[in-house]
Amino acid sequence: MQIEPLNNLKNCLACDKPVKGRVDKKYCNDSCRNAYHNNQKLTGSYNSYVRNINNILLKNRRILEEMLPTEDDTTKTTKKRMLSLGFQFKYFTHTYTTMSGKIYCYCYDYGYLPLDNDLYLVVKEKYRPG
């Protein structure tokens, strides 16, 4: 075990107090580590941009989840209803194309498939381990 000399003590990245312990230790405790990382997430225009998109994706996911009763695998809804709940169609995490060419758009594990007459099929992705 390597012990650092007193004149080489590092200061906590969050509170600037001297850090004791391992040579590579950066924070006094878990509270300072969490505070530092939370602050990093809140600062900067890029982080703000990413945070806003993630909030939209999470809202889209929540809307899809609320539309799909837990006992059902799928349900149908209208575009008008989705829009009235604040769904933003241009934001999704990924797509899935079936062998017949149908394209499902997903917000994490919940997805939707455009049907005829402004109807949408809402689905929950089946868990795939690995």
What does this structure look like?
The protein is α+β, with helices and mostly antiparallel strands and about 130 residues long. It folds into 2 domains: about 5-40; about 60-125, no CATH class. Helices cover about 30% and strands about 20% of the residues. It has helices at about 30-40, 45-65, 80-85; strands at about 75-80, 95, 105, 110-115, 120-125. A 5-stranded antiparallel beta sheet has the order 1-5-4-3-2. It is elongated and about 70 Å long. The chain starts with about 30 loop residues before the first helix and ends in a 6-residue tail after the last strand.
Q: Give the overall shape, derived from the CA principal axes.
A: elongated
DSSP helix fraction: 25-40%
What does the largest sheet look like?
5 strands, antiparallel
What is the CA-based Rg, rounded?
Answer: 23 Å
% residues in beta strands: 15-25%
SSE succession: HHEHEEEE
Oligomer: single chain
Count helical runs: 3
Average pLDDT confidence is 88
Poorly predicted runs of 5 or more residues: none
Number of strands: 5
Identify the strand order in the major beta sheet: 1-5-4-3-2
Structural class: alpha+beta
Q: Domains counted in the coordinates: how many? A: 2
Q: What's the end-to-end separation, in Å?
A: 38 Å
